[in-house]
Write a structure and sequence with these properties.
245 residues, Rossmann fold, 4-stranded antiparallel sheet, 9 helices, binds adenosine-5'-diphosphate, binds magnesium ion, Sugar ABC transporter ATP-binding protein
Amino acid sequence: DAAVRMTGITISFPGVKALDGVDLVLRRGEVHALMGENGAGKSTLIKALTGVYRVDSGGIQVDGRELRFDDPSQAQAAGISTVYQEVNLCTNLTVAENVMLGHEVRRGPFVDWRATRREARRYLQRLHLDIDPRSPLAAHSIAVQQLCAIARALVVDARVLILDEPTSSLDKAEVAELFRVVRTLRDAGVAILFVSHFLEQVYALSDRMTVLRNGRFVGEFRTADLSRRDLISHMVGRSGEALAG
Ligand code: ADP
Ligand code: MG
Ligand code: MG
């Protein structure tokens, strides 16, 4: 039931092997955390999946089909949406325009703006987000802007949603709201990849995790089966106890 299966992914930059034979499986209806210390290769793996980087070797299957992404638009067309730490929306447009940008990419330019606003409102309502579609995006907090970016994933009917440290600038209530929306998408069958430095958030949200260390695959674990101490020792490659002590 894998939405994405990456196998043996290897990517080198001059002087550094960023990824060396890494596997990643993202399943429908699950939140999958990608864990590893700074420099472990998390962002590089995400960029391979989103078509930003080409792989030197290894395979990427989406819905069981072997794909090769030469640029990000191809990954997007395959149903892979990404929300970055920095908001990747147009703050000079309205909420509706931003949410429906995904629609435009997929189904061509809008003609009827009133219908577009209505449709944006429907998508926001599906996520129980009480945001006025006519308001300028710039009038809202970063948290609301992130939620609009996630709503856009729904508009493009994303099979895979990648959240790369989406909570870095959010307060506690905003994180709770973001998690609620992520769980709604998860329960709708979206495969979600979650990258966060906050162990508490990873344990609260993820069903499984993949751990990387120095560009290598350490293992895949069910979150409920992995103690924080063991996770840390997998990440750093020595006893988590020693690290804590
Ligand atoms: P993480 O996201 O886990 O912190 P990265 O994927 O950013 O790790 O980096 C993995 C390794 O690849 C690091 O050694 C990093 O310096 C290197 N790296 C990442 N991107 C580039 C790049 N564009 N050019 C050269 N080296 C890179
Ligand atoms: Mg980093
Ligand atoms: Mg990174």
